[in-house]
Amino acid sequence: MEQLLSVGEVAERAGLAASAVRFYEAQGLIAARRAESGHRRFRRDVLRRLAFVRVAQRVGLSLEEIAEALSGLPEDRAPTKAEWARLSRGWRARLDERIALLEGLRDGLSSCIGCGCLSLRTCALSNPGDWAATLGPGPRYLLGDASGPAPAGTERKKRTGRG
User: Which of 17, 32, 145, 159 is the most exposed place for a label (fewest CB within 10 A)?
Assistant: First the structure.
């Protein structure tokens, strides 16, 4: 017979508050069974799902993205290694994009953003005439978009988010 865990046991094992476990259940990220008493009972494999949810959140993925990924896993049993691998393959491009964005931000913070170069002619974030607004909202150059027309006597390069 399968050992089921209470909300408190899951919370303790996962390092969460019981209210967080109930929240994740309400969001459809994990599922519980009801005991005859009406109390929630969870299979042990819910701990892996919660670990996945917490790590995915820490790297900046939304609950909607996480729920979408988990929806491809079976709810009535523990996912197999192959099923977890399929989920991982599906996220590879998205995670690579996040890694590149984080690396660009890290490098930009240490070089370009606060560099004090005092030269708008060579500054990678220079935006004469607010040309970047034509590329869309947000920090376009830090997101990797190419800059607009270069100031006279200079040459612009493709923005990589790095310096």
Answer: 17
